[in-house]
Amino acid sequence: MFMLFAKLLLGLAVGCASAVVPILLAELAPSEKRGQMVTRNELMIVLGQFVAFLSNAILGTIWADDPQIWRWMLVLGIIPALGLMFGTWLVVPESPRWLISTSNTKQALEVLKQVRESEIQAINELEEVEKLVEYARKINEEKVDILTMLLNERWIYRCLLVGIGIALCNQVTGVNSIMFYGTEILRETGFSNQIALMANIANGVKQAFFLNLDLPRCFLRAI
């Protein structure tokens, strides 16, 4: 029962991070570096998966006779999680848009000054965000159906379809099955535990390799 609850909690955390991090990156990153930031985020995720596969293989090889070693594999994940948690609290700034919506305009300006090259850029962007927040507030007061309004814009509708299509293609490939159960699949085909753990490292290597092939192009795109 505890493991089921833990998996549900992990899924909730990953889902929240997958939704919040790209939005915050898009808000904080300047337009000319947005492609770089999104690519770096994906690269860090892939490298994290590779390190997880590698550490599991090392633990599984050294303590192959210990039936409880899988528990230590799970516990090891606490280390980067704690680093991410404290790093987020201490380093990552608040969302400027959220600060403006809560009447913390001065703090929002300070955040924009940190992530923009000049104070003029920060002030100009602050004014734009203030207009967007005020527009969103008026729409809420008028009780306008935002979803219907957005879908009536053909270009937004096309972007939505493209985004859904990319997400569907990603899931249809079955990549999550390989990432989550790669070791078990190899074990059921006849490999030993040690070989299955070592072979599963190839999943992380493959993802990092193909992402690196696209890095030069992504770093040149503003998006």
UniProtKB/TrEMBL annotation:
The chain crosses the membrane at residues 43-63, 70-92, 155-181. GO terms for molecular function: transmembrane transporter activity. Residues 1-223 form the Major facilitator superfamily (MFS) profile domain. It is found in: Membrane. It is a multi-pass membrane protein. GO terms for cellular component: membrane. This is Major facilitator superfamily (MFS) profile domain-containing protein. It comes from Meloidogyne enterolobii (Root-knot nematode worm).
